[in-house]
């Protein structure tokens, strides 16, 4: 009983600190792009596109961050019709205020390099990573596949608001928004020819990988997406010319990356949970549910499944090899976590217990790269050596089972792993919980009326 009481007390202490932080969160109002119809820019349902802008100040007043919102895709009429009735396809259903945290925070102690920049979040309502330009109209229903036009309309709205005089600019995005950063990076640099423009993709390096049933599930999904929404004409021309036999491949970052000339930073978890669930082991490849337990908790993964997960990480590193070796202006932070999107959440971007590689946080890595303070190409040692991860699913309790499947060369890159664990263990800081623990924590806080989280 005493153990339970202590556990509840620790939860309450953590909860109180979280509630204090959430009370100070930055809420930014939505701006609807009223002139969007002039260039045919509409969300899936015909509503007007929108963004959220928080103004910069001081020495950052002429610097800009544009952050693409993420949220998956729709690649057929049924899924797009359903999406059009949600916040992912219509600004009518979106919250009119957005929380700005992580890379969008205005707090110098939480976002030291970009806190005083003009920060913009582009709302996602087209279902094709701001890349399509088509329309479906059968006389009774209409769907607008106008992501490219939405991008152009928002840019036209921001240029006279000061972005046209930008000195520095960073185009970024998370998940499907991270894919948008690959699609629009060079175009953004051309829009701001007098600025120092760079691009960042967070959790947007989606692999052209066979699933566990040896089918190209993601390749087929993207091919249908590109066809339905008219994306091909907006993909990198040098890439589509090179892959002339199958230009749709250029929606995959691993193929287009070498043709992007603007400095680029890739932030990705090597065991990205979205890719784990939808590319490596999509539902269609696991009809018998053999991966169900493993997806929920890596402690339940068998030896073969562990080996497949390590192989997925290996394939990601192979896909990044050319960029790693040949990009003099590029940056990377590939950590061995079961995560997805790490730049928008404060706990993963920059906090006491943020994920680290060689003791460098994501915020520090991105800042060092953008401002040319240091060469930043960080690749983590294989799971489970990184004790700083904020995993979105519970992870293996017995780390030795994973270590059995690592090579000596892999372990050679993890010289500081034991030191990291030692530092973590001797720290007296009460750290926030993740995964199931976080869910229980938030529920308890809510029940006790200690704060508002959503």
Automatic annotation (TrEMBL):
Q: Which domain of life is it from?
A: Eukaryota
InterPro entries assigned to the protein according to its UniProt record, in alphabetical order: PAE/NOTUM
Q: Which UniProt keywords apply?
A: Cell wall, Cell wall biogenesis/degradation, Hydrolase, Secreted, Signal
- What Pfam families does its record include? PAE
Compartments reported by the entry: Secreted, Cell wall
Where primarily located?
A: secreted
Any idea of its EC number?
A: 3.1.1.-
Signal peptide position in this chain?
1-17
Main function = Hydrolyzes acetyl esters in homogalacturonan regions of pectin. In type I primary cell wall, galacturonic acid residues of pectin can be acetylated at the O-2 and O-3 positions. Decreasing the degree of acetylation of pectin gels in vitro alters their physical properties.
Query: Into which family does the record put it?
Result: Belongs to the pectinacetylesterase family.
Return the protein name: Pectin acetylesterase
Which organism does this record belong to? Hevea brasiliensis
């Amino acid at each position: 009983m005493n153990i339970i009481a202590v556990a509840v007390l620790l939860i309450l202490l953590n909860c109180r600190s979280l509630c204090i932080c959430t009370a100070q969160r930055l809420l930014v109002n939505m701006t609807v792009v009223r002139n969007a119809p002039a260039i045919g820019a509409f969300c899936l349902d015909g509503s007007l596109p929108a963004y959220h802008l928080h103004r910069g100040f001081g020495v950052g007043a002429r610097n800009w961050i544009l952050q693409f919102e993420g949220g998956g895709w729709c690649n057929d009429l049924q899924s797009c019709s359903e999406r059009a009735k949600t916040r992912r396809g219509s600004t009518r259903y979106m919250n009119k205020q957005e929380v700005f945290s992580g890379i969008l925070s205005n707090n110098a102690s939480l976002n030291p390099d970009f806190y005083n920049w003009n920060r913009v979040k582009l709302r996602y309502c087209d279902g094709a990573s701001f890349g399509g330009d088509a329309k479906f109209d059968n006389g009774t229903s209409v769907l607008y596949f106008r992501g490219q036009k939405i991008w152009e309309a928002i840019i036209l709205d921001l240029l006279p608001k000061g972005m046209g005089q930008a000195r520095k600019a960073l185009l970024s995005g998370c998940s499907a928004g991270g894919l948008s950063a690959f699609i629009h990076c060079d175009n953004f640099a051309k829009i701001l020819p007098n600025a120092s423009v760079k691009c960042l993709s967070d959790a947007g390096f989606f692999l052209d990988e066979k699933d566990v049933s040896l089918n190209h599930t993601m390749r087929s999904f993207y091919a249908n997406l590109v066809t339905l929404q008219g994306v091909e004409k907006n993909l990198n021309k040098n890439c589509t010319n090179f892959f002339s036999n199958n230009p749709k491949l250029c929606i995959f970052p691993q193929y287009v990356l070498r043709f992007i000339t603007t400095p680029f930073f890739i932030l990705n978890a090597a065991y990205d949970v979205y890719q784990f669930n939808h590319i490596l082991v999509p539902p269609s490849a696991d009809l018998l549910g053999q991966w169900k337990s493993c997806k929920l908790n890596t402690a339940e993964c068998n030896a073969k499944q562990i080996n497949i997960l390590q192989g997925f990480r290996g394939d990601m590193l192979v896909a990044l090899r050319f960029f790693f070796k040949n990009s003099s202006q590029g940056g990377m932070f590939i950590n061995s976590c079961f995560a997805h999107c790490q730049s928008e959440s404060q706990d993963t971007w920059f906090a006491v217990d943020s994920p680290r590689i060689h003791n460098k946080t994501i915020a520090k890595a991105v800042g060092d790269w953008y401002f040319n303070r240091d060469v930043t190409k960080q690749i983590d040692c294989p799971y489970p050596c990184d004790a700083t991860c904020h995993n979105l699913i519970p992870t293996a309790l017995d780390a030795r089972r994973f270590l059995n499947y690592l090579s000596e060369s892999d372990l050679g890159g993890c010289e500081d792993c034991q030191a990291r664990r030692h530092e973590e263990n001797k720290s007296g800081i009460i750290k926030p919980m993740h995964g199931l623990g976080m869910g229980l924590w938030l529920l308890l806080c809510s029940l006790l009326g200690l704060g508002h989280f959503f």
